Amino acid sequence: MKRFALPFLLALISFSTVAKADSIAIGQLSYLGLTPDGSSVFKVTLTPPAGISLTSLGAAIFIGDDKLAFTLPSANEFLFITGPGTAFSNCPCTDVHFDFIASHGTTVMMQGQTLTLKRRSHSFLRPASGAQFLVPGQSSPIFLSTIPGKDKKAAALNIAAVPEPSTWALIASGLGMILGKSFRRVSRIGSA
C-alpha cells in the first residue's frame, strides 16, 4: 500500500496545477451615497495603464440581484443610479460587483509582457468589516484578471493542464484496479 501512496500523490499534484491568475488595477468603483429620493449612486472611474485599451471588452455591473450589461462609454468616469426607472432597485446595498468580459484569447501588453485576459474579471465592493450595508465614500479597485504568458499559445498550454472530468474518471478507475489487486494479493498472503 505504501508503494502506491507516493505515485498517487505525485499524480494528483501534477494534474492539479492551474495557471496562476494575476490582476491589473485599471480603475475604481465607489459608492457615493443616497440622493434625496432614496436612490443610490455609484461612480466608476477607469484609468488603465498605458497601452491597455478597454474598447474590445464587454462590461456588466451587478447591484444586489440586478444586472446591467453595457458597452463602455468613451468617458473615463460614469455613474450608475438605482431606483425607479433604472435597471436597479433601490438599496441599501450589500454587494456590488463590476465585471469585464473578454473574448477568448484577448491579450494586452504591459511592461513588455503579453498577458492573456481571463474570460471574466470580477471586482467587488462589499460592506466594511462589521457593517451590514455599503457606506457612502466606500470604494474598491477594479481589476482585469490575466493569465501570465508570453503569447496566446503559452497561455492556452497553461489552461490545458487542467484535466477534463473523463480524465479524472480514468485515473480513478486505474488506481482503483491497482489498489483492488493489491488488497486481494495481501488477503491471499494473509489467509495462506
Description:
The chain has 192 residues and is α+β, with helices and mostly antiparallel strands. The chain has a single domain (22-158), classed as Immunoglobulin-like (Sandwich), CATH 2.60.40. It is built from 3 helices and 10 strands. The chain has a 6-stranded antiparallel sheet, covered by helices on one side. Strands 4-3-6-9 form a 4-stranded antiparallel sheet, with no helix packed on it. It is elongated, with a radius of gyration of 25 Å. Residues 6-21 and 150-160 have low confidence and may be disordered.
Order of helices and strands: HEEEEEEEEEEHH
**The CATH architecture:** Sandwich
Please report the distance between the alpha carbons of the first and last residues: 19 Å
Per the CATH scheme, the topology name is Immunoglobulin-like
